[in-house]
Write a structure and sequence with these properties.
The complex is a heterodimer of chains A (669) and B (179).
Chain A: H1 12-72, H2 76-91, E1 95-101, E2 107-114, H3 121-128, E3 131-132, H4 137-145, E4 149-151, H5 163-169, E5 174-181, E6 184-192, H6 201-232, H7 242-258, E7 265-271, H8 274-281, H9 283-300, E8 306-311, E9 314-319, H10 328-340, E10 343-345, E11 348-350, E12 354-360, H11 367-383, E13 389-391, H12 394-415, E14 419-428, E15 434-445, E16 448-450, H13 452-462, H14 465-485, E17 494-498, H15 501-504, H16 509-520, E18 527-532, H17 534-538, H18 540-553, E19 556-562, H19 569-574, E20 579-582, H20 584-588, H21 593-608, E21 612-615, H22 621-630, E22 634-635, E23 644-645, H23 646-654, H24 662-668
Parallel strand pairs in A: 12-13, 15-17, 17-18, 18-19, 19-20, 20-21, 21-22
Antiparallel strand pairs in A: 1-2, 1-6, 2-3, 4-5, 5-6, 7-9, 7-12, 8-9, 10-11, 14-15, 14-22, 14-23, 15-16
Helix pairs in contact in A: 1-2, 1-6, 2-6, 8-9, 9-10, 12-13, 14-16, 16-18, 22-24
Chain B: H1 3-17, H2 19-29, H3 43-57, H4 61-79, H5 81-84, H6 90-94, H7 97-108, E1 117-120, E2 126-131, H8 138-151, E3 156-162, E4 171-177
Antiparallel strand pairs in B: 1-2, 2-4, 3-4
Helix pairs in contact in B: 1-2, 2-3, 4-8
The chains are: A alpha/beta (669), B alpha+beta (179).
Chain lengths: 669, 179
């Protein structure tokens, strides 16, 4: 075993070694310390990166959550709810709340989210009641600045309306940031926490992004609402349109089913004479009046009443709570009163009234039916004059249904060949000769023969008179020509055809008449066109122009129902007529002294104007005697012959002497 | 167990007893001793180190752990000043454990198994903490509480009427803060 070598302190070499070793240890210690510090530094750097990475990931996640919510949301409400919750959870805010800017420039409280609803009930209540103006409260400050606002300690800023409530709830730091559509602030999201937080630039940048995302949803919803509004409102007046009214009325009827004691009134308001204003003053003036009417009606409606515009000058009011104090008549009066002041457009004043039809809704009816009922009642009101109101009844409904059935049948009458012409002779009172035949329309409806009075007014209203009239003219001229070619018939009477107002309004009427005459090779002079005075009352110049053209064509014109139409004598002067037909009402009362005086004057007047006088409706020999003595030229009536179908009339034409009974013949001769 | 715990232990032992003691601790515990705050290490290594320290310093395990916690706090304050600065007293600092400190810890160390404390803060100068953990490190919590009090220049008194180490279902730590 070797003796262990020990360093001797006296040994200079050893001493040197010891010093060196000590140095070495110190150096190693420093190195170890350095290494330790380097490790700390590396850990610190790594921790910072890790934290930043974590925060960035969280923010990305939040941004994605909000973007998804914005993309998928069906409404601003649901997107807001998701966003408030996501921000609270990701950023550890206690409470999130949305404010929405309303049309009056104030913020209204919207959705709230908090993890602990109970804890923030009082704060929530303090928020709910508030409406904040620009510059007031957190949302007001955001609006005023147009950017996010960071309040380090909300509870200490006494100028904020909810500082006390925040303090009581232990809420400290708050942020508010704008929801932007373009550059407009439309809402503000606010978040509060019980911690004291310093402004965080990255968080604010993220919130700006959130505000823009949510703004997209608001913009989308606004666009959708605009579309819905456009689809349900009238562009001119801004009132609900038919779609909207039907919808509202549908709901009102549904409520009626649940509450049968309620009364819902549907008012159909149609302006009187509006078409004339539109035609004479132009549509821009008409539009101004419609807007003014809408505004006036809106002003007298109660909040629960719905006012809408159906089309043109037709308005609808739906009143959901009719009762004694809110009665139909009172509402109708209010409408008329609203319109009573003249409408001033430029220098012109217009007086407007409305015809009003009302129906009381029944639960089994649908909105279209109810509007049709009110419309029918309005129509009835309009026919009885301006400014009237009529209430729909089942009787009126039955009448309308009958009319509807009649109209449908009449439409098919021409194609089913159900129309017939009967002819009634017009007899020369001095010779007894048949001078003319009036073509009279009949409708062979199944087994019944329908008289003109029952369907001509309807044909006039519906415009069916135009094709029917064309058929009558053609058929009459055809038949007349057929008789003229018949060698057994020696007489060649003219053919009288009635023209309606609607036909005369047709600018091509002259051409049509000319075409019919040409087609059948008929002489225009063999055609006597009968028109009533009322034809020219509607539009004097147009009526007279057409009649002048027909006269020019070679046809004769007779004024039908003479003496009943209020025509002024000055028109009579310009009327290109060749004959007047004295209305049957004068002939049937000819025994009356005053009637006799009138008929005497009419015949004299006709003769003075160079017109032939024709008396209609002669039924007795006494009437015939008087008329003959007065110098009336031509007579027509049962006394001579009833209107007959062409085949029955032929025998008369072949033996004209058989026309008059013995007495009548005697008188005439 | 998170590396930071080992890191801090190394720092405290080296500072108080020298590097050599730390080396001896590692050698006697039979652990490699390569720790960084970023890593994750078996709980058992910490337990071995504590056991060895108990022998070397001749003090009981809870005392070692408490000593460690109390000394770790200033180091934490140095590393993470942001958690301490918003507060002026230990009680308010302690109350942010669940909501701020532990979430922040999890940001750094995803999956960190931080304990959840239930607080009763109804008394202004008192705090009752309920602690349940498999690790049963209520002594560490106590040490950290003392350290927090030191940081804010306060003194505290701690009692544990219930302790899992004594067979209870939970540890109940009652703290009285000086003003």
């Amino acid at each position: 075993m070797h003796e262990q070598r020990r360093p001797a302190l006296s040994d200079p070499d050893r001493l040197l070694e010891l010093e060196q070793a000590t140095d070495e240890i110190a150096r190693l210690r420093r190195r170890a310390e350095r290494e330790r510090k380097a490790r700390r530094e590396a850990e610190r750097i790594s921790e910072r990166s890790t934290r930043e990475l974590y925060d960035r990931q969280q923010r990305l996640l939040l941004a994605r959550t909000v973007a998804n919510a914005a993309n998928e949301a069906s409404s601003v409400g649901s997107a807001t709810g998701t966003t408030l919750r996501a921000i609270c959870e990701h950023c550890d805010w206690r409470l999130g709340h949305a404010w929405w800017l309303t049309e009056d420039g104030l913020f209204d409280s919207g959705d709230t989210w908090s993890g602990d609803v109970e804890r923030f009930t009082d704060f929530h209540d303090a928020t709910q009641g508030l409406r904040l103006a620009n510059g007031v409260g957190l949302p007001g400050r955001v609006l005023a600045r147009g950017e996010a606002v960071w309040v380090r300690d909300f509870s200490q800023v006494l100028s904020l309306p909810r500082a006390g409530a925040a303090s009581a709830a232990g809420l400290r730091t708050a942020i508010g940031f704008p929801v932007l559509v373009g550059s407009d602030v439309v809402g503000v999201l606010e978040f509060l926490t019980e911690h004291l937080l310093e402004p965080d630039a990255e968080l604010l940048a993220l919130m700006a992004q959130v505000g823009t995302e949510l703004g997209r949803v608001v913009e989308r919803e606004q666009a959708a609402q605009r579309l819905v509004h456009q689809a349900t409102h009238d562009a001119l007046t801004g009132l609900p349109n038919r779609v909207h009214i039907n919808d509202g009325l549908g709901r009102a009827v549904a409520r009626l089913r649940r509450d049968p004691g309620a009364h819902v009134g549907v008012f159909f308001i149609d302006l009187d004479g509006f078409k004339a204003i539109n035609d004479t003053m132009g549509h821009p003036v008409g539009d101004v009046i419609l807007c003014e009417v809408a505004a006036r009606l809106r002003a007298v409606m109660r909040p629960h009443d719905t006012l809408g515009r159906l089309s043109g000058d037709e308005f609808i009011v739906v009143c959901e709570d009719l009762d004694e104090t809110h009665a139909i008549a009172a509402i109708a009066d209010r409408v008329q009163d609203a319109l009573s002041a003249p409408f001033e457009i430029g220098d012109e004043l217009f007086q407007i009234t409305a015809s009003i039809g009302v129906t009381v809704a029944k639960p089994e009816k649908d909105p279209e039916e109810l509007i049709a009922e009110a419309d029918a009642a309005m129509y009835r009101a309009k026919r009885s004059g301006r400014g009237r109101c009529e209430v729909y009844s089942e009787q009126l409904g039955a009448q309308i249904r009958r009319r509807g059935g009649l109209e449908r049948a009449l439409r098919k009458a021409t194609e089913r060949d159900e129309l017939r012409l009967h002819y009634q002779p017009e007899v020369d009172l001095s010779s007894g000769k048949i001078l003319g035949l009036e073509a009279l329309l009949r409708w062979q409806r199944d087994d019944a023969l329908v008289m003109p009075a029952e369907f001509i007014p309807l044909a006039e209203e519906t415009g069916l008179i135009v094709p029917i009239g064309a058929w009558v003219l053609n058929e009459a001229v055809r038949q007349s020509q057929a008789w003229r070619r018949d060698p057994e018939i020696v007489e060649n009477p003219w053919i009288s055809v009635n023209l309606s107002v609607r036909q005369l309004a047709d600018p091509d009427l002259t051409q049509r008449v000319a075409d019919v005459l040409t087609q059948h090779g008929a002489d225009p002079a063999s055609l006597l066109l009968e028109v009533t005075e009322s034809v020219i009352l509607d539009d004097v110049d147009a009526g007279l122009t057409i009649l002048a053209q027909l006269k020019q064509l070679g046809a004769d014109i007779a004024i039908d129902d003479f003496g009943t139409g209020y025509a002024s004598l000055s028109y009579l002067r310009r009327f290109p007529a060749t004959a007047v037909k004295i209305d049957r009402s004068f002939i049937s009362t000819l025994h009356d002294r005053r009637t006799l005086a009138i008929v005497t004057a009419m015949i004299e007047l006709a003769h003075a104007l160079g017109l032939t006088a024709i008396a209609e409706g002669i039924e007795t020999t006494e009437q015939l005697t008087v008329l003959s003595e007065l110098g009336c030229d031509i007579g027509q009536g049962y006394l001579f012959a009833k209107p007959k179908p062409a085949d029955e009339l032929e025998s008369l034409l072949k033996r004209p002497a058989a026309l008059l009974d013995a007495g009548a013949q005697q008188r005439v001769r | 167990m998170k590396g930071i715990v080992f890191d801090l232990l190394e720092e405290i032992v080296a500072r108080e007893h020298g590097d050599r003691t730390w080396d001896q601790l590692l050698e006697r515990a039979g652990v490699e001793g390569v720790y960084t705050s970023l890593g994750n290490y078996p709980d058992s290594e910490l337990m071995k180190l504590v056991a060895v320290a108990t022998e070397m310093f001749e003090i009981p395990v809870p005392d070692v752990v408490r000593w460690y916690g109390r000394n770790a706090m200033p180091l934490l304050a140095d590393r993470y000043p942001g958690f301490f600065e918003p507060h002026t007293d230990a009680r308010s600092f302690v109350l942010t454990l669940n909501e701020i400190i532990h979430p922040e810890v999890r940001k750094l160390y995803p999956g960190a198994d931080t304990p959840d404390f239930t607080f009763d803060a109804s008394q202004p100068q008192h705090l009752t903490m309920e602690y349940r953990s498999k690790r049963q490190l209520c002594a560490l919590a106590e040490g950290l509480l003392y350290g927090a009090a030191d940081h804010y220049g306060q003194s505290i008194e701690i009692e544990q009427p219930e302790c899992m180490n004594r067979g209870d279902q939970r540890c109940l730590i009652q703290i009285a803060f000086s003003s």
